[in-house]
Amino acid sequence: MSTSGATPAFELRAASVRLGGTTVWSELSASVARGEFVALLGANGSGKSTLLRVLLGALALSAGSADVLGAAPGRSARAVGYLPQRRAFDSGTRLRGRDIVRLGLDGDRYGLPLPGRRASAAARARVAEAIELVGASAYAGRAIGEASGGEQQRLLIAQALVRKPDLLLLDEPLDGLDLPSQAAVAALVAHISRSHGMAVLLVAHDVNPLLPYLDRVIYLAGGRAVEGTVEEVITAETLSELHGVPIEVLRASDGRLVVVGAPDPPAHHHDRHNRAGAGAAAHSGAHAH
Q1: How far apart are CA 51 and CA 55, in angstroms?
Q2: Cβ–Cβ < 8 Å for 202, 175
Q3: What φ, ψ does residue 129 adopt, rounded to 5°?
Q4: Which residues contact 231 (CB under 8 A, 6 or more apart)?
């Protein structure tokens, strides 16, 4: 999608963040236009979640400036949908899926809906609309603990969408899902972005499930960022320069990208709960899934 002339959903200009006396990233400039679907990539510790915290107004810049929906970060909070890193619901969790979604409407005011308190007709309609949008109507009445990982993630995305945000921030929504669920969630997010003109910034470790849908990527490494199309950014030249080590980028026969040599590369799949094994494998050769 071309962004020429579009009003940015957010924009960072020469932005820097320091945490505990350490610079996370500096002189970072990046933007996402309204209606764009952009992936935020980079190794663990590169500052991806830190960038989301800045956009949410939860962390101040140490230098530079940031605008979110035309205002300072945090000033337009109700117009920003946010899905934090994946939460796993225990199989015994009895909250219904629709209750989880409703928390996106009023959880910030009084937590869970009070016993005996009836939601307004408008609130019920909005929750139902968000659930239908993510295709979760068939199981939203069941306990969230009974839902599969992909079903839970759809309901959590509905929670982030229930206020009809203009900007959607998703922190690793594909992590921990099986490959079919990754593909389904990626397609769902892309459809929502396109059909509603919503800007989406999605943090990911593996770019491959997103390749058919992305407009651009922002890649963080070494305290810097590069943004552009996948073809412009995920290249041996660009990644080698960012990481300061030789990196190869290969394209498998089925179109998947395989990054060889990068720490925690963004073009192979691994399980969050098996990081050590994944990291060791990443340095031993090419990976595809």
Answers
A1: 6
A2: no
A3: -65, -45
A4: none
